[in-house]
Design a protein that fits this description.
Number of strands: 23
Number of helices: 19
Number of domains: 2
CATH superfamily of the largest domain: ATPase, nucleotide binding domain
CATH architecture of the largest domain: 2-Layer Sandwich
CATH topology of the largest domain: Nucleotidyltransferase, domain 5
Radius of gyration: 23 Å
Length: 529
């Protein structure tokens, strides 16, 4: 048994997970989690989000996340985890969420606007105009100004809550805030950022590695002084605070890794640390991302230009709608996950030309914050559970794929993570639509990625001869592919899938006023195939 353990926290929208690993034995020694709704009912959340915050708003209390972290630590300690052996902790955080502190370390706003908050569309429009239009914004920040990103959240506070804005000394992202608490909080906590998560603020340019002075000034001349310095992603930022040493038994020299966004650590946890692998995460939102050695900036801003957690790059597609449509159809029709797979088999790929634009709660890609769903090609007697189930499945996958087409990569393999990756129907549909082999990855995704990153950083900094340690070598023993669920594109589905993709793209383009081919004519190709 190794003397050294490493911990990864994933502070996500709906809950917090903890993974503890022993790299010497290639062993995951502990997995635990907290669901905010069920385990912290005093915060009154639904799916981890405060209720009744207004149209388009999605917010959570940052103190809930700290309570969740302490709770998962306490559960691990009760389960027998020896915290005295934990050498480094790394935090994965839901990206883009804004946390604001005053100089003393108190919250200046008791709620954090989250990644899926769409209430800042007006701020995005104003910032884009102030910076000279979309092309100028992308030139400055590498990304467009979108409601999901952090810049508009800060600007929204400036415009609508000026008193809170004036009191704010530090604007944090979610994982930076957790790091500050872990390193001592009000008692000497470290206020820093790192390039991975920071590149999703639409203020810091991942290509140049610098803050955009114009973007900062467009919000407020003093903003640059209120944002912490950016330190490398592959280093530690300090040691764990004395309160955590006393409460849980961490060693006083336990290091806190720089941490990163959940997508960056999802890449690590799925072995997506070398070129050619694409990770697709099937969760509340849907994401697709890949490791690159050079930065990629999408001229439309639809593909996020992110840094990763290793000093390289992670272009990323994110759609807001994925699990929401799926979960809702299960609820409405009283369908289990297994029953959904059975229902889908009663229909054929292409769904007889019935298409769904699954924009149930606005959409991030394409950038349509006020979008609503559209059912196309449905007759009056077509709204049956089996037809709707296939429409939801294909609609969500096609929506993800339409954005993915902008990615500069032809995947060798797509690795699936998230709850729906266990579904045969989802795995096969993604393989057919993306025209690539798909395979689910077992394990805890971002939380495991955080623990692996913590082990890598500590090895480089503290282990004898560890300076040249490679992350890929640390990761490899822990990435377990579910080969029983590996799917290849089915040749018999190729023609109808191609016709379906063309029809979907045409319909999506027409709805957004972009012209293009006639979706009615393209639909006829599906029905005749």
């Amino acid at each position: 048994m190794s003397e050294s353990l490493f911990a990864g926290l994933d502070v996500s929208t709906q809950g917090t997970k903890l993974v503890v690993i022993d790299p010497a034995g290639a062993d995951v020694v502990y997995v635990g989690g907290v669901n905010y709704d069920a385990d912290l009912p005093q915060y009154g959340t639904q799916d981890g989000v405060m209720r009744n915050r207004g149209e388009g708003a999605s917010e959570s209390d940052p103190l809930m996340w700290i309570d969740a972290v302490r709770r998962v630590f306490a559960a691990a300690k009760s389960a027998g985890v020896d915290f005295g052996r934990i050498r480094c902790v790394s935090v994965s955080g839901q990206q883009h969420g804004l946390v604001s502190l005053d100089a003393a370390g108190d919250l200046t706003r008791p709620a954090s606007k989250l990644w899926n908050d769409f209430s800042t569309s007006e701020e995005c429009r104003i910032l884009t105009e102030r910076l000279g239009g979309l092309k100028a914004v992308i030139r400055e920040t590498g990304n467009s100004q979108r409601t999901g990103y952090t810049a508009a959240k800060i600007f929204h506070m400036k415009r609508h809550e000026p008193q809170a804005f004036r009191k704010t000394a530090t604007f944090f992202l979610v994982h930076n805030y957790i790091n500050w608490v872990l390193t001592g909080g009000k008692d000497g906590g470290v206020r820093v950022m790192e390039p991975g998560d920071t590149s999703g603020m639409a203020l810091w340019n991942p290509k140049t590695g610098r803050w955009s002075k114009k973007a900062l000034a467009a919000i407020d001349p003093s903003l640059a002084k209120r944002i912490p310095p950016v330190k490398p992603s592959d280093e530690s930022i300090g040691r764990i605070g004395a309160a955590f040493v006393r409460e849980f038994g961490f060693p006083a020299d336990c290091r806190i890794d720089a941490g990163c966004g959940d997508n960056m650590y999802g890449a690590v946890g799925t072995g997506n640390v070398v070129p050619g692998i694409v990770t697709v995460s099937l969760g509340t939102s849907g994401t697709a991302y890949t490791f690159m050695k050079t930065p990629y900036v999408d001229p439309t801003g639809e593909i996020a230009a992110f840094c990763d957690s290793t000093g390289h790059y992670l272009p990323l597609l994110c759609v807001s709608n994925l699990a929401n449509g799926y979960n809702e159809i299960l609820r409405l029709h009283g369908i289990s996950h297994e029953a959904f797979n059975t229902l889908v088999k009663k229909t054929k790929p292409g769904n007889g030309g019935r298409l769904l634009l699954p924009w149930y709660m606005g959409e991030r890609t394409p950038d349509l914050p006020w979008a609503t769903p559209l059912y196309f090609g449905f007759g009056l007697d077509d709204f049956t559970p089996e037809i709707l189930s296939r429409a939801v499945l294909e609609g969500h996958v096609l929506n993800l794929f339409e954005g993915f087409c902008r990615m500069p990569v032809k995947p060798k393999e797509i690795r699936l993570t998230g709850g729906m990756s266990k579904s045969e129907a989802w795995c096969q549909t993604i393989a057919d639509v993306f025209e690539a082999e798909t395979v689910p990855v077992e394990g805890e995704g971002a939380a495991l990625g955080a623990a692996l990153h913590a082990a890598w950083v500590w090895t480089k900094e503290c282990a004898k001869g560890g300076k040249s340690a490679k992350l890929a070598d640390v990761v490899k023993p822990f990435v377990r592919l579910d080969e029983a669920r590996r799917k290849k594109p089915l040749a018999e589905n190729a023609a109808v899938t191609l016709a379906m993709k063309k029809a979907y793209f045409a319909l999506s383009g027409r709805v957004r006023g972009k012209g293009g081919e006639d979706p009615f004519e393209l639909r006829s190709r599906i029905t005749s195939s």
